[in-house]
Design a protein that fits this description.
Elements lengths: L1 H91 L2 H19 L5 H20 L2 E3 L12 E7 L9 E6 L2 E3 L2 E4 L1 E6 L1
Parallel strand pairs: 2-6
Antiparallel strand pairs: 1-4, 3-6, 4-5
Length: 196
Amino acid sequence: MAKKKEKKAEASEIEIEDISSEAEPEDLEDQKAEDAGEESTETSGQAEEASGDDAKASEEDEAWSEKYTRLMADFQNFRKRTDKEKADVYSYANEKIMTDLLTVLDNFERALGSECKDEPYAEGMKMIFKQLTDILTAAGLEEIDAVGQDFDPNFHHAVLTDNNADFDSGKVTDVLQKGYKLNGKVIRPSMVKVNE
């Protein structure tokens, strides 16, 4: 009987060992599956966080890129504006002195239009007048063409009307005072007669 008990005890020990050896791999697999599930949950959470961070970063990049583009456009506009202002200063710096000299030109022309008995004197005055007009022309002064042109209020100042059959209606028939431009800008419009 003692032998039977020993055999039963050995058999039960073997069964216990078999059960424990069989149970261990299943438990390990369950444990591994749980760990993998937790890891996949963690990695998917991290992936969502990373994609949220990436979206936020790309929005910030776009905002900075837009700010940079606007800043560059503002800078380019500023540079163009200052360059134009500098060019205008150089072009029109002489405007005040030119307008003052226009009365001198008018008086010179009137003097040359009158009769002079001293021919060498008249010739010398014409040479001085030509020298003065050449200098002013080189500085950017130009006379406004008026006679025979269409009346343009940007260039002409109408003071009289005329009934001249030689000209069409709206044409300038006579110039009472010459007009001038300095580098394309009108500094004095021509005083003119306009045909009705």
